[in-house]
């Protein structure tokens, strides 16, 4: 009888617990919590050296930090994060001197003695960079530092050839001065190094944590970031709590904000210590509808505006937010992305490749026949920015007004016919069909039909080959795609990153998918690598841009403009896709949630 | 019976091995490494990835490795290429949320569609039958995606905006946390699973009702029904005792065919409603060419289908004394 009573009591207790829900929920009730979306199935790994996608970046940036970061108020500019000040250079930019902040601690974690996070030091920076060279991590992000730091390439080759990777072995270019100061010596001046030090893959990790968690380190982040991981349910959600020991990082001062930003009250928290919220909860959305509905129900702080829902919230022609959304207190925001979407040619292809006047004329004929403006109006409500050259708007080297004389910008049917004749295919006669590889989706199918119709007017036959994205990459990497649709998002706000796409040694499977090889172009690229921003460097950028346009290595390009909507209860929000360390600046006003 | 089960299981082993062979071979038509590379891959990175995935070995060796891994299922160590965690762990976490949707769906759709099928068959040719079948055809003709999109909008979003305390949520949010059994809490089940279950039931009703009606119509034309009616048995007794009992074989077949879906889940509903189940896990694996996950799911689905087939035969013998297992 006693047993059965106990059983009944336990049963009732279990049932009441189930119905009442976890007690943790009530404890978290009084906290400032912000709910944000991740538009896909989220990160693959929370280990910076294994990350490569936007979503890896978005997640890692909450837990880990880099030496430098983008400025929240002006994301194209860099500022110190783990450093006490911006690095200084000597020897014309070869030797970089760094000084770490004195008060930065790793998260409290059981990997440290007594579970108390320790101060970061110079050795942590060296260790974190050395992990990029370790083939245990598949060298996924080695390209960031390849041929850059003195002795680092040799170190990588030697250690990977050895039985065990020795993290204590010295690298000629790593010079420790003391626990907070160090130098990195480059093989030659490389200006982009500044941006590399702000990329999440170079985040500082603790050796103790990597060794303690081993294979599970990718799901147990121990960094210096503003948040500490609570739960990560892969492809579903990620929650994190405020780091109570976060070092001094202040909200940007009033002067840092533009007039437009001030109108949006983005300066309201100027000078205050961040983060403001106690907890952040990310939900992953594979489909757009649930994300859009959850945002409209006021359950998400902000959302990207999916293409299919744009006209629901914005006026199609003026791009102004509709009255009902304004009345609901929602705030729009848009970003011009550093995007380069294009239809590339494989310069090694028998039909479309090559540098002779005839081959060049054939590519230009195709380019003249394609009307990008019609594509933009038909499929993107005119929201894409069409421009000449591979350098997106906003960067040095982008042509004035988006047009360059060197470009074969369509649509110009007369020119297209002239070029076809010059190529040896008068009126398209004798020209085999152009095989165009692109990824399979409804939009691409429709765009391909439009391009086919445009090319038919000059008797160019166009044959679209649709495949899933990985098959498309495979075809491009193996140089099997004569023409292909692709896109590139700049890693950092410097045109050098986009011009690298045409650098000969980067040929497929590297990022030079066009397999474009011109020694004079390569020489100029090597020259700009060492140059800081200047008029002289911009002039070389323009020369390189026009060389590519003249050779017509692709048809394009276009850049996206991303629209956001921000809930009235989410404060300080200025979404950017240049970096993802900005969530710490956000705040919530729960009184505005209803 | 035990001998029968053992013999049928042994007969099905070659089928099981052949299905895995075909799926593994088909997956390798295209190189999966491309889907896993960084922005600027080098030949060295590609080679490392290939070696890590075991793709540098001959296909037969890869097949043998996978089969031997399956043979030690109690210590199954296949790891996801995409996420680096054990596939068994992924399945362990994904099965309960799927079951929170599929078990109620199967039970409710079978119960409702059998009843509707019976009523329809008994009123064959009358307006009740015509109306029910008209609705069933409409139900079958509309894409499941339409039900999901409209169901989510009108079943959760719109009333949620207008009615305080409306129980259905648009999607599962981060509050679900890590517990695989989150959806078995009644409050959570109503909030996140009930609407998807209702949509699934509506979708399956069209097909199931027509099937069960056809079965019942065939039964209703048999002599024993006429005899039962002649003896003065009530309509209810004729339908639910005589007819239903004799129609058990096709009913069991239909339900048993559906049984593996209890584990495998339903892809679209899980994706839209954010249910972290088997369907959502599988579609993510297919999108990222995560072969270990796809292969393991294939092996699991195949085993479930074989098991349900054998179980169906056993149930035939139990419900119909004329059936002998030999």
Q: What does it look like?
A:
The complex is a heterodimer of chains A (594) and B (326). Chain A has a six-stranded mixed β-sheet with strand order 14-18-13-17-15-16. In chain A, strands 1-10-9-8 form a four-stranded mixed β-sheet, covered by helices on one side. In chain A, 30% of the residues lie in helices and 17% in strands. Chain A has helices at residues 2-20, 23-27, 54-63, 122-131, 152-161, 193-196, 207-213, 259-263, 288-296, 310-313, 323-327, 357-369, 372-380, 413-422, 442-456, 469-477, 496-499, 519-529, 535-551, and strands at 33-38, 68-70, 78-80, 88-90, 95-99, 174-176, 181-185, 227-233, 237-242, 279-284, 302-304, 331-336, 339-345, 385-386, 434-439, 462-467, 483-489, 554-559, 561-566, 570-571, 587-588. Mean pLDDT of chain A is 92; it is low at 1-26. Chain B is an all-alpha fold and 326 residues long. Chain B has two domains: 2-75, no CATH class; 87-319, Orthogonal Bundle (MetI-like fold), CATH 1.10.3720. In chain B, 73% of the residues lie in helices and 0% in strands. Chain B has 14 helices and no strands. The model of chain B has no long low-confidence stretch (mean pLDDT 89). At the A-B interface, β9, β10, α9 and α16 of A face α2, α6, α7, α12 and α13 of B.
At the third CATH level, what is the topology name of the largest domain in chain B? MetI-like fold
Instruction: Let me know the CATH homologous superfamily of the largest domain in chain B.
Output: MetI-like
From the helix content, strand content and strand pairing of chain B, which structural class follows? mainly alpha
Tally of helical segments of chain A: 19
Structural class by sheet pairing and helices of chain A: alpha+beta
Distance between the termini of chain A: 52 Å
**DSSP E strands of chain A, number:** 21
């Amino acid at each position: 009888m006693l047993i059965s009573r106990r059983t009944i009591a336990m049963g009732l207790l279990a049932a009441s617990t189930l119905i009442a829900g976890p007690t943790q929920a009530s404890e978290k009730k009084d906290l400032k919590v912000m709910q944000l979306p991740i538009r896909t199935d989220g990160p693959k790994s929370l280990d910076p050296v294994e990350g490569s996608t936007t979503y890896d970046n978005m997640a890692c940036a909450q837990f880990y930090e880099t030496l430098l970061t983008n400025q929240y108020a002006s994301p194209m500019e860099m500022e110190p994060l783990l450093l006490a000040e911006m690095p200084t250079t000597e020897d014309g930019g070869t030797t970089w001197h760094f000084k770490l902040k004195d008060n930065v601690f790793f998260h409290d974690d059981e990997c440290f003695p007594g579970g108390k996070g320790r101060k970061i030091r110079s050795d942590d920076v060296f260790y974190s960079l050395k992990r990029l060279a370790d083939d245990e991590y598949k060298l996924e992000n080695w390209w960031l530092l390849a041929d850059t730091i003195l002795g680092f390439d040799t170190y990588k080759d030697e250690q990977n050839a050895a039985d065990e990777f020795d993290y204590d072995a010295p690298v000629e270019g790593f010079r420790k001065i003391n626990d907070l100061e160090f130098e990195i010596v480059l093989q030659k001046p490389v200006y982009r190094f500044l941006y590399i030090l702000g990329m999440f893959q170079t985040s500082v990790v603790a050796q103790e944590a990597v060794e303690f968690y081993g294979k599970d380190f990718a799901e147990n982040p121990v960094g210096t970031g503003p948040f500490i991981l609570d739960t990560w349910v892969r492809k579903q959600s990620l929650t994190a709590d405020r780091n109570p020991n976060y070092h001094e990082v202040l909200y940007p001062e009033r002067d840092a904000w533009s007039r437009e930003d001030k109108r949006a009250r983005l300066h309201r928290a100027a000078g205050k210590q961040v983060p403001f919220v106690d907890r952040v909860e990310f939900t992953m959305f594979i489909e757009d509808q649930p994300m859009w509905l959850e945002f409209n129900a006021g359950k998400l702080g902000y959302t990207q505006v999916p293409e299919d829902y744009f006209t629901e919230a914005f006026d199609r022609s003026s791009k102004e937010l509709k009255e009902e959304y304004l009345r609901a207190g929602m705030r729009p925001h848009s970003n011009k992305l550093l995007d380069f979407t294009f239809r590339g040619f494989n310069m090694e292809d028998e039909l479309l490749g090559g540098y002779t006047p005839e081959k060049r004329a054939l590519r230009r004929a195709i380019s003249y026949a394609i009307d990008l403006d019609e594509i933009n109006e038909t499929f993107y409500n005119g929201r894409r920015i069409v421009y000449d050259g591979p350098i997106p708007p906003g960067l040095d080297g982008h042509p004035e007004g988006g047009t360059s004389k060197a470009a074969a910008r369509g649509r110009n049917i007369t020119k297209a016919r002239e070029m076809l004749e010059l190529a040896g295919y008068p009126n398209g006669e004798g020209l085999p069909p152009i095989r165009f590889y692109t990824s399979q989706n409804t939009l691409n199918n429709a765009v391909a039909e439009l391009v086919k119709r445009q090319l038919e007017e000059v008797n160019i036959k166009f044959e679209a080959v649709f495949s899933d994205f990985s098959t498309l990459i495979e075809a491009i990497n193996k140089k099997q795609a004569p023409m292909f649709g692709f896109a590139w998002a700049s890693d950092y706000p410097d045109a050098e990153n986009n011009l690298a796409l045409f650098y000969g040694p980067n040929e497929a499977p590297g990022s030079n998918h066009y397999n474009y090889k011109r020694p004079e172009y390569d020489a100029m690229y090597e020259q700009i690598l060492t140059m800081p921003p200047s008029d002289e460097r911009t002039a070389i950028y323009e020369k390189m841009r026009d060389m590519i346009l003249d050779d017509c290595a692709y048809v394009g390009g276009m850049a996206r403009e991303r629209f956001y909507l921000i809930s009235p209860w989410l404060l300080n929000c200025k979404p950017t896709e240049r970096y993802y360390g900005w969530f710490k600046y956000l705040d919530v006003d729960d009184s505005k949630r209803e | 019976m035990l001998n029968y089960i053992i013999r049928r299981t042994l007969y099905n082993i070659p089928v099981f091995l052949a299905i895995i062979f075909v799926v593994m071979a088909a997956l390798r038509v295209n190189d999966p490494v491309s889907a896993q590379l960084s922005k600027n891959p080098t030949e060295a990175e590609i080679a490392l990835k290939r070696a890590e995935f075991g793709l540098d070995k001959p296909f037969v060796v890869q097949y043998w490795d996978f089969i031997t891994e399956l043979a030690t299922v109690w210590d199954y160590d296949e790891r996801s290429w995409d996420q680096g965690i054990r596939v068994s762990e992924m399945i362990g976490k994904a099965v309960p949320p799927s079951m929170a949707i599929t078990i109620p769906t199967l039970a409710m759709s079978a119960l409702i569609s059998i009843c509707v099928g019976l009523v329809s068959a008994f009123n064959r040719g009358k307006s009740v039958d015509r109306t029910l079948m008209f609705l069933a055809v409409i139900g079958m003709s509309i894409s499941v995606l339409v039900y999901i999109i409209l169901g989510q909008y009108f079943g959760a979003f719109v009333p949620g905006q207008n009615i305080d305390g409306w129980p259905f949520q648009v999607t599962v949010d981060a509050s679900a946390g890590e517990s695989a059994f989150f959806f078995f809490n009644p409050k959570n089940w109503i909030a996140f699973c009930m609407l998807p279950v209702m949509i699934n039931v509506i979708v399956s009703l069209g097909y199931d009702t027509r099937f069960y009606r056809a079965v019942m119509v065939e039964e209703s034309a048999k002599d024993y029904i006429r005899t039962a009616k002649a003896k003065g048995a009530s309509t209810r007794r004729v339908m639910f005792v005589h007819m239903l009992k004799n129609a058990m074989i096709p009913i069991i077949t239909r339900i048993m065919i559906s049984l593996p879906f209890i584990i495998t889940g339903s892809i679209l509903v899980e994706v839209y409603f954010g249910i972290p189940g088997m369907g959502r896990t599988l579609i993510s694996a297919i999108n990222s060419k995560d072969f270990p996950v796809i292969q393991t799911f294939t092996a699991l689905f195949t085993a479930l289908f074989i098991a349900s087939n054998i179980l169906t035969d056993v149930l035939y013998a139990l419900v119909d004394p004329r059936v002998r297992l030999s």
